[in-house]
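I had to read the description of the data format several times before I understood it. The format is easy to grasp once an entry is in front of the reader. For illustration, here is how one protein appears when written out as sequence plus structure tokens:
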Amino acid sequence: MKRGRKIKRPRPHIPLHVRVMVAERQPYAGGFPRAKDGWPIGTPLKFRLDFALDMLFGEKPAHLDHDPPLRARAFNPRTGKYTPDANDPDYLIYRTAEDHRVKTNVRGDHGQYSDRALIRREKKRERRRSGKKFKHRWPKGRKIQNRPFPKGKRPFQKRG
């Protein structure tokens, strides 16, 4: 592999039946019929998903969130799989679009680190494990300007 090239991590498609499982298991969405309790046989999964999301969030747009984020999970480059799996319903949750944005960019759940901060910390850990040296930001040969003391008495000299 060429130096400096990164492995493309897959972001797998989440099947519709997994999305329905996630939406129907959310703790505050218990007011609609489950498949074994009351959905007629042959009810389309898209209808069940739309119904569950409407019960959860009403008219607000909903996003499916990986918790923890995919980039912060262990990844096997040989198999191309994450641990835990990217489509595991236990690690997926529906959130409103605004809540998802806040969790990703501002702060995580209950004041924890945001997803971007978790990813940054994981990259740093990987870099330490691999033994790569940190690259300095300044190019070689850049000199920090030296400034001489002002002429006359210096403040730290003993007085007469």
Summary: The mean pLDDT is 80. The CA atoms of residues 63 and 100 lie 7 Å apart.
